[in-house]
Structure prediction request, 450 residues.
Amino acid sequence: MGRWANAVPSRAEQSDTKRKAIIREAARVFNRRGSHGTTLDDVAERLGVTKAALYRYVNNKNDLLFACHEEAMEIANEALEAGEREGRTGIEKIQIGMTGYLRVMISDLGVPVLLLEENALAGEDATQIRALRDAFEKRLRRLVEAGIADGSIVPTNPKLAVFMLLGAVHWVTKWYSPDGPWTAEEAASALIELATRGFAANPSPTLNSHLHLPSNSRAKRQKEP
Amino acid sequence: MGRWANAVPSRAEQSDTKRKAIIREAARVFNRRGSHGTTLDDVAERLGVTKAALYRYVNNKNDLLFACHEEAMEIANEALEAGEREGRTGIEKIQIGMTGYLRVMISDLGVPVLLLEENALAGEDATQIRALRDAFEKRLRRLVEAGIADGSIVPTNPKLAVFMLLGAVHWVTKWYSPDGPWTAEEAASALIELATRGFAANPSPTLNSHLHLPSNSRAKRQKEP
DNA sequence: CGCAAAAGTGACTTATAAGTAACAATAGTA
DNA sequence: TACTATTGTTACTTATAAGTCACTTTTGCG
Prediction:
C-alpha cells in the first residue's frame, strides 16, 4: 500500500482511469460517426496518443465497442433503479429514471449508444449486449404496464410506447451539443417531459420546464439576468 | 417512340427502374448497418448481381448515398405538403404529414435515412443534403409554431418538439419489421398519434389506434377473426 | 542517481472494400 | 440470322484501416 493510499493513485488505478477515458471518447465518436465510420486512429488522435497505445488498454476494436455498450447499459440500469425507488406511479418512475439516464449520458459520456448499428458487434459480445438491451427494454415495458394499471398512463401498447420514448431519447446524439443553449439537465428533463406526456393518463395542460417558454421570452430572460 | 409506347418500357426507362431499385435496396441496408458498415458487395448480392454491375448506374458509393438521402427528402417534403393541404390545425398538418411520410418510408423504402451518420457523405453532396434536411426541420418547426398560435399545440419549444418527434420517427428503423405483427400503416399512425400527443393542447383521454388495445385483447382478436 | 517495469511510438503486415478494365453474355434491330 | 448496343462478370489494382512488433521514452522506487 502506498503511504497516502487514497491520495496518490496506484499504477493500476491510473491504468483503469485511462481505459475509461478511452471508452468515453470512443463512445462519443462512435455515436456521431458510427462504429464503422470511426477509425482507431481517430480515437487515438482525440486523446493525443497513437493508435498502438490504445492496444495496451483494449484487446481490439470490437472489445472497445463492447465496453462502450456495457457502460451505457450500466448507466441505464442504475438510472432505472433510481426511478423505481423514487417514483410513486408508473409514469413517475419512467420520468425519473429516463431523465437521470439521459442527463448522465449527455453530460458524462456525451452519448447514448445501445446498439445503434446492426452487426457492428461481432460474435459472443453481440449476443451479450443484445440480451442486456432487451432486458432493459422489457423493464421499461413493465413500468409502462404498471403505469396503465395504476392509472398514471393511458391504455396503450407498451412496446410502442417504449419504442417512441427510446427513439426520442437516443436521437439526442444527433442534435445535442454542450456548446448549444441548453444544459444537459435542461435538455434531459424537457425532452422526457415532452415525450412521456404522449402516454400520460392526465397530461398537464401546460409544460413545466422553462425550456418550453416561447423563444422571445427566453431571449429576454437572458438579457435581463 | 415504340409501338406500344406506354406498355413496353424503353431502354432508358428500364435503366431508370434498375437505378431506383439499387437506391431502394441500398437505403435499406445503409439504414440498418450504417453506410460505412455496408459494402457495395452486400448491396449487389441482395440484388442478385455483382458489384461491378452497380457502377453502370451510380458513379460511386458516395453518389449512391446521396441519392438515398435525396429520395428520402423528396418523400418527406411531399408528405408534408399533403399534410399542409389537408390538415386544418397545426397539429393536424403535422400528424397527417408525418404519418404519410412514415408509412411510405416503412413500406416502400424500408427506411427513413436523413443523415443518420455524420461525415458519411463527402464534399459538396454533404452540404446539399444538410441544407435539404435543415429546410425540412424548419418547415416542421413552422408547423409547430402555427399549432401553438392556433391553439392546437401546447406552448412549447418548437425545436425540442421537432427533435422529439423526429427521434421517435427515425427510430423505427431499429425495431420495425414487415414480418412483425404490425402493418406499415398501423405502425405509422399509432406511433405518430402517440408522439404528437406529447405536445397536443388537448390530448385525447384515450388513444384511437387499435394497436393501443391491451395485448391480450389483441391476441383474442387474432384468434377470432 | 540508476534501473526495471510500464507506457508510448514508428514502421511494418494483413485484411477488406472501393473502384477499374478487359472480356462475355444478352437483347433489341436491320 | 447477323450485328451492335447494353448489361453484366471475372479478375485485377489501390486505398484504407485493423492489428503487430521491435524499439524508445517515461516514471515510480531502492
